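User: Before I run my own analysis I want an independent prediction to cross-check against. Here's the chain; please return only the structure tokens and, at the end, one sentence I can use as a sanity check.
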Amino acid sequence: MKKYIKIAVFLSAIGLIASCKKFVDYNPQDAYLVTASSYLQSESDYRTMEISVYTPLQWLNQVVPIGDIASDNAVAGGESASDVLDLQQIDQFTTSPTNGSLLNIWQFAYEGINRANYLTEYKTANPAGSQVNFAGKDAMYGEIYFLRAYYYFTLVKMFGGVPLFTDKRLDFSASGTLKRAAAADVYQQIEADLNSAIAVLPTVQSQAGRITKYAAQALLGKVYLYEKKYAPASAVLQSVIDAGTFSLVAKFDSIFVKSGENGPESVFEIQYTNTSPYYQWSNVLQGQGNYAVQQCGVRQLNGSNDMPYAAGWSTNLPSGDLYNAYQAGDQRRDGTLFDVAAYAAANPAYGITYEVAPYENTGYYDKKYLPRKGQTSGQVELNYLNNYRTIRYADVLLMAAEAYNQTNNDSKAQLYLNQVRRRAFRVSDASFDVTASGPALYTAILNERRLELAMEGERFFDLVRTGQAATVLGSNFKTGKSELFPIPQSEVVVSHLQQNPGY
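Assistant: Structure tokens:
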């Protein structure tokens, strides 16, 4: 019988050593299995378990393409109409409760929650009843609270109300006993976890990718927007802006190359690496590399050795509608959409050849996460090192603009919106500024979110939370159903969870 979530606690034998590119590196071949009652005997045990709570972040890489494929930004693409069927369903709003991509997201998010709960269960005393105190323990728990909030936020925005538990890990006895909490209760717990995190997290971490106070504040601001709590959203997002820690880089597409990782615009990035030997075709999503990068590439792309791009599978293809949404002069268009035909024509010395995307060809590819040579190793397709830029400073500015507009502070809303627009058009004057107010300004802010954050997994969820989805996405989108994805059928069967309407 299929269980609700993996119960065993696997811990990787890694120390936080300075030689690692990213602190999430680990070698599962050296992993060991321990019983819950015999672990957490030392600071090292706590720190190692902390790393394992971060790990499922990497496995959730399909949330990003789904967020665009389900919207007007992208199509599923692939080799044929029978390829990547999970994504084809999501693209066409024919999603089944047996969709494998959704099941993976559900299981991986709950794996992260289970691991976080193991640590919170033994925060005061370990399983043997002993206290293990060490410098930085409270701040470490701030990271754990953030991660649990992030996993629950992923679940609630995709599925609505979900089983909510924080005091313990699930074990086998939980099968068949779980109930869905109301979405409002899940959001309340997310808020509580993020506020607990903000209270103890540092503003700067010694290792890139670790959660900071600002990351927790930014995520809390986003959560408030989803709940339409605009006044607290503006306040917490203003705290991130006032910190003066972040800035918009001048060249938009420099954010998404290797040298742009964890840069001045990065508030929170999910770290990936190509240094681990762990990757396998039987479990493509649970390696250390970003599997979604291979999906985005041009099929059968070849060229001279100095041609920088590598081949991929032509899925998650940006739409022509997205291309046309950009104004002339907006550098984000060419930083977001890769036109392989235009690129080959402009660079004849590379001798580029490629296969036109066989299914749903739009002529465009996701440039933000386009496969590049030298950024993978081992099993090439499964081990790209590209970080997900999960919360950028531009996102913070646009969220703040939205919150201020909805609380009748249009001057602040215009200020933050136009900072993003000036970077987009590489100007320092007001030539591209938005001067509208009220509902027209709100529309401009939401449009700017589409242009700025395209192919970063935000679009579908923005359309749903702002009530635009039915109008923008057309007749395939069914109001009262398509706002949420179906609960995985295995969870309905095993745990008797109530399915979402319409599935």
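Sanity check: Residues 137-159 form the longest helix (23 residues).
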